[in-house]
């Protein structure tokens, strides 16, 4: 049975898994799970994963959830000497990758996702913009995460572990691109971040980078999708929790 990846490229973690598998020529079947229609809550997907989130990887009888776990699994199973830089065997370089992957969950991912929801999703559900003080607070958190990313994790290096791209850079770029998809230019007046983005894009290949991010760069289509499939009512309680 070929490797199966259950993905929706609206999702940052799905994009990281998709890009890595494509870039390293790992053969896989793309199993689309339409998050905008709530397909993850359906009976069929529930048989794949009770977590009901994407990405999910199935390798024969082995099913794995969580993007970081999937990325490490793929890197270790399919890695070669030429691709070692993604998840290095070198103890300290691997520790740097793990350090970023551990930090980003409560920082870059949390803050970038919140800004994305506030700019792209909440107005669709509520019919009005997020209160200015909440939007400002979310942007302050994201700005701080970007500052830490530049000053600590890049620190004048081309990539997080040094001269070569790694899983850490891949996970970072897909998270940063999430709020960018709402029309927010996070690279403006951030030359260090912009230069790093350009290097990452070059290493991945422009065509693959654009293919992976095409969906998130078209979030303007989400309102009509939610209207057509009834997800507006489903999402309202989740949105209300953000403001309680």
TrEMBL record:
Main location: cytoplasm
Reactions listed under catalytic activity: RX + glutathione = an S-substituted glutathione + a halide anion + H(+)
BP GO terms, sorted: glutathione metabolic process
SUPFAM superfamilies: GST C-terminal domain-like, Thioredoxin-like
Gene3D superfamilies to which the protein is assigned, alphabetical: 1.20.1050.10, Glutaredoxin
EC number: 2.5.1.18
InterPro entries named among the record's database cross-references: Glutathione-S-Trfase_C-like, Glutathione-S-Trfase_C_sf, Glutathione_S-Trfase, Glutathione_S-Trfase_N, GST_C, GST_C_Theta, GST_N_Theta, GST_Theta
Location(s) in or outside the cell: Cytoplasm
Keywords: Cytoplasm, Transferase
Cellular component annotations (GO), alphabetically ordered: cytoplasm
Name of the protein in its database record: glutathione transferase
GO molecular function terms listed in the Swiss-Prot or TrEMBL record: glutathione transferase activity
Assembly description: Homodimer.
TM stretches of this protein: none
Phylogenetic classification of the source organism: Eukaryota, Metazoa, Chordata, Craniata, Vertebrata
Superkingdom of origin organism: Eukaryota
GST C-terminal domain mapped to chain residues: 90-226
GST N-terminal domain residues: 1-82
């Amino acid at each position: 049975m070929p490797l199966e990846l259950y993905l929706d490229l609206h999702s940052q973690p799905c994009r990281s898994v998709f890009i890595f598998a494509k870039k390293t020529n790992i053969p896989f079947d793309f199993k689309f799970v339409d998050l905008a229609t709530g397909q993850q809550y359906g009976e069929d997907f529930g048989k794949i994963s009770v977590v009901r989130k994407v990405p999910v990887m199935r390798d024969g009888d082995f099913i794995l959830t969580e993007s970081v776990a999937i990325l490490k699994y793929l890197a270790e199973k399919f890695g070669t000497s030429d691709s070692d830089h993604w998840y290095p065997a070198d103890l300290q370089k691997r520790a740097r990758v793990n350090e970023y992957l551990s930090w980003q969950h409560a920082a870059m991912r949390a803050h970038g996702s919140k800004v994305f929801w506030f700019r792209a999703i909440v107005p669709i559900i509520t019919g009005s913009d997020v209160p200015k003080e909440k939007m400002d607070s979310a942007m302050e958190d994201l700005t701080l995460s970007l500052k830490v990313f530049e000053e600590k994790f890049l620190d004048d290096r081309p990539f997080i572990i040094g001269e070569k791209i790694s899983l850490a850079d891949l996970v970072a770029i897909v998270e940063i691109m999430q709020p960018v998809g709402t029309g927010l230019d996070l690279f403006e007046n951030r030359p260090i971040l912009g230069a790093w983005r350009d290097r990452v894009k070059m290493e991945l290949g422009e065509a693959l980078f654009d293919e992976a991010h095409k969906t998130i760069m078209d979030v303007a289509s989400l309102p009509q999708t939610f209207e057509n499939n009834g997800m507006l009512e489903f999402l309202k309680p989740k949105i209300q929790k953000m403001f309680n």
